[in-house]
Amino acid sequence: MNEDRKDARYHNAKYWQIGFFSLNNAATNLYLALMGYLSYYANSIAGFSVVAVSVILTGLHVFDAVTDPVAGFLLDRTKGRFGKFRPFMLLGNLIMAFSALLLYLTTHKISRYFRLAYFVTLYGLFIAGYTFQTVAAKAGQAILTDHPGQRPVSACFDSLYVMASYGGTALFVGNYLVPKYGGFTNGRLFSEYVLWVLAAAFFCTLLAMAGIAGKDTPDAIGRQMGAQKICVSDYWEILRCNKPVRMLMIAACTDKFAATVYAHTTVGVMLYGILMNHYGISGWIGVVTALPTLLVVGAGIRVAQRMGQKKALVLFTALGIFFQLLMMLVLLREDIHSVSFSLRHINAVTVLFVVIYILLNGCKSITNNMIVPMIADCSDYERFRSGKFVPGFMGAMFSFVDKIFAALGTAFVGIVMLIMGYNRRFPQIGDCVTQELKWMTLFLYCGVPILGWICSLVSMRFYALDQKKMYEIAQNLHQQELSKKR
Question: Which domains are assigned to the chain?
Answer without folding.
Answer: 18-474 (1.20.1250.20)
